[in-house]
Amino acid sequence: MNTALQFNRSPYTHFMQETKVSLSNGIDLHVEIGGRNDHPSILLIMGLGAQMLFWPDFFCKSLIDQGFRVIRFDNRDIGLSSKIRHQGPRLNPYKLMGRFALGLGNKGAPYDLYDMADDVALLIDQLGLKKTYVIGASMGGMISQILAAKYPEKIEKLALMFTSNNQPLLPPPFPKQLFSLIGKPESRDEQGIINHSLKVFKNIGSPGYLNQIEALEISRKLYHRSYHPAGVLQQFLAILCTGSLLKLDKQIPHSTLVVHGSKDRLLPPSHGKAVAKAIEGARFELIDGMGHDIPPHFIPQLSRLFAHHFKS
């Protein structure tokens, strides 16, 4: 582990420490680490517009309790990491989505998922990790696929959650789920933004497992920690400008577990199945009743699956 980094106790979780890591490409990433330094590391890569707190504390703790050191961080353009100021022309995501559905990339975004995968590769170096286990969720799973194909020497084993390789002609997200994720809140004040977050949780989450009070608390915490809607749009454009990852999947040499929820309506299960089919030897696990989130109910099952995959 890089001993030059200055760590402070996380303001959110008593068993994690936080630090700012400056990468050689000019990006700063905000990172939290928990668990013993001599335990193998799991690097968690989160999805579109999602701060690292979307990795639930209970999920992190259950992996730490099974003998891992857990690292979560804010991707560029979200949370407490560097924000990207875009000077170029404004892109219309709806126009780009047609090409994207055919597996084609687009041009003109401030950055794409390859740039975000480079961030993670530089982070692995800066943290002094020799080889790490990786769990990527949603967009973070797409970044993880690029990372594994481009920097295979940095990764020990790979696990992917409710993600896609965006290959041509996969079923699109259900409109209600997609537009709640990329839509605007009804008002710009705190309550309007928190209500919008609650609506997103309800629309993309596991049906019947949303705890309103917990969701309200996390929405408020996320709002006060960082509210940066421009970053959400730019990350969405990054996905649309990256296109299909099918060719990259065929290059991934690592033992890979792909986990998907049966009730995911943002990225239906066929997306996860397509990833598992494309990566040689990958195992697919469908979680009955789970949507596009990590509710407490499923965490014991998920953390056991991941721990078993990494230890086996």
From TrEMBL:
<dbReference type="GO" id="GO:0004806">
    <property type="term" value="F:triacylglycerol lipase activity"/>
</dbReference>
<dbReference type="InterPro" id="IPR050471">
    <property type="entry name" value="AB_hydrolase"/>
</dbReference>
<dbReference type="InterPro" id="IPR029058">
    <property type="entry name" value="AB_hydrolase_fold"/>
</dbReference>
<dbReference type="Pfam" id="PF00561">
    <property type="entry name" value="Abhydrolase_1"/>
</dbReference>
<dbReference type="GO" id="GO:0046503">
    <property type="term" value="P:glycerolipid catabolic process"/>
</dbReference>
<feature type="domain" description="AB hydrolase-1">
    <location>
        <begin position="40"/>
        <end position="170"/>
    </location>
</feature>
<keyword id="KW-0378">Hydrolase</keyword>
<protein>
    <submittedName>
        <fullName>2-hydroxy-6-oxo-6-phenylhexa-2,4-dienoate hydrolase</fullName>
        <ecNumber>3.7.1.8</ecNumber>
    </submittedName>
</protein>
<dbReference type="InterPro" id="IPR000073">
    <property type="entry name" value="AB_hydrolase_1"/>
</dbReference>
